[in-house]
Amino acid sequence: MKIIFILVIGLAVMSLVAGCGNMALGPSGGGTPTHDSGTIEGKVNNSALQPLSQASLTLEGSSSSVLTGSDGAYIIQNAPVGKYNIYASKTGFLTSFDAVTVSAGATVMKDFTLMPTEEAGVSFSVTSTSFAGGTNIPKQFTVDGSNESIGLQWKKIPIDTQSFAISMTDKDANNKSHLLFTNIDKSITFLDEAAYKGTIAQHMPLGGVTLPNDFGNVGYDGPGTGQPSGTKHTYEIRVWALSVPTTNWQRYSDFLADGGVTVKGVATIEGTYTKQ
Q: What is the mean pLDDT of residues 115-144?
């Protein structure tokens, strides 16, 4: 009787463990959706609309991901109810993302088309989704407005880049830093507008670590911070392509002191702001 009892208990434990495994994201996306979760599914194609296998799908705020099959299809079950971004990435392609709203017990469809990364030999560059380079920075992104951080997109990435860093400095105030990011995942090619609203993180880039700026804040101090009224300053935003996945940089002087050891390329955009 003891042997039978132990066998029954063992089978029960194994069944419980297997059931728990269905709750986690995996290659198949997990098990049956729960009452407080939903399902996301779709396909990932290249620019020729051919299916991409082994593309990675990651939910914002999650450390788990799923991979597409040979037909480019994926499914994420047990996705938490709510609205957030989903990122699609694959080595050799630019990362794409889109917002999804997951409802309890429902399935939402989300397809992606990934564009190939630019080849070497073309200049690394950055543009802003918030203003045109060389023009005035809108009030929304300054300390006189909503103090929301500026949106960015970068392309023509140097070969073998392992991570990115971002800096924003005031060229008319001895390059005082207003925003510092490091360790941004190599698959990321953008920074959302309002990633920070002051010191409140809202849309952190994948892997990103925020360093204290020269105002002593971990976050964003927009143009106009520390700037005398009526003066016009030029702000420089740099995206740094790095040869290592993480750095031990702590402040902006560490960016400059690197001397090209880990920096593979730097893309720059400038904007101006007149303090009210």
A: 84
Please tell me the class of the 125-274 domain: alpha beta
Residue ranges, CATH 2.60.40.10, the chain: 25-114
Pairwise CA distance, residues 76 & 161, whole Å: 29
Length of the chain in terms of residues written:
276
If phi > 0 it is left, if psi is from -120 to 50 it is alpha, else beta; for residue 103 that is beta
pLDDT tens-place string over residues 207-222: 899 999 999 999 999 9
- Give CA–CA dist 88/100, Å, rounded: 13
Listed in sequence order, the residues at least 6 apart from 102 whose beta carbon sits closer than 8 Å to its beta carbon are 37, 38, 39, 40, 79, 80, 81, 82, 83, 108
Which are the contacts of 8, defined by CB distance < 8 A and separation ≥ 6?
none
* H or E element that contains 10: helix 2-21
Distance CA 234, CA 109 (A): 44
- Burial label for 4, CB within 10 Å (0-12, 13-18, 19+), is exposed
Q: Which fold has domain 25-114?
A: Immunoglobulin-like (2.60.40)
Cα(142)–Cα(50) distance, integer angstroms: 43
Amino acid at 127: T
**CB within 8 Å of 117: residues ≥ 6 apart:** 92, 93, 94, 157
Beta bridge pairs of residue 116: 93
Give percent of the chain with pLDDT exceeding 70.
84
| 145 pLDDT above the threshold of 70 | yes
For residues 272 and 233, give the distance between their C-alpha atoms in angstroms, rounded to a whole number.
6
Residues of the chain with CATH 3.90.280.10: 125-274
Q: Which amino acid is at 39?
A: T
